[in-house]
Description:
The chain is built from one helix and five strands. The strands form two sheets. A three-stranded antiparallel beta sheet has the order 1-2-3, covered by helices on one side. The chain has one domain (12-78, 88-107): Peptide Deformylase (Alpha-Beta Complex), CATH 3.90.45. The chain has one helix at 26-41, and strands spanning 46-48, 58-65, 68-75, 90-97, 100-107. Helix content is 14%, strand content 31%. A hairpin with a 2-residue loop joins β2 (58-65) and β3 (68-75). The longest helix has 16 residues, at 26-41. It is α+β, with helices and mostly antiparallel strands.
Amino acid sequence: xxxxxxxxxxxxxxxxxxxxxxxxxxxxxxxxxxxxxxxxxxxxxxxxxxxxxxxxxxxxxxxxxxxxxxxxxxxxxxxxxxxxxxxxxxxxxxxxxxxxxxxxxxxxxxxxxx
Length: 114
């Protein structure tokens, strides 16, 4: 496993559309391990592959919410949009981004439909 450098806002790789993962092998497993290690070293809640310069559609997460640890990874995620709840953004719920160090922004979460 390796800790990878995290790209900072302004790097064009952060705005390039991700490419789907088509090969699921030991290299992918090792890369996901690197994402976890990098996220942990940076004290992050989550990290996407493009944040370390890899174009593949992958992200990892590792956080505590409501006293429980949530840890996992997602390969080839999809996003469904819906109207934003009136509570978004929540000025009392600030989050940061590892690619925008030192900044925090009001956020909110849509309802989970699992």
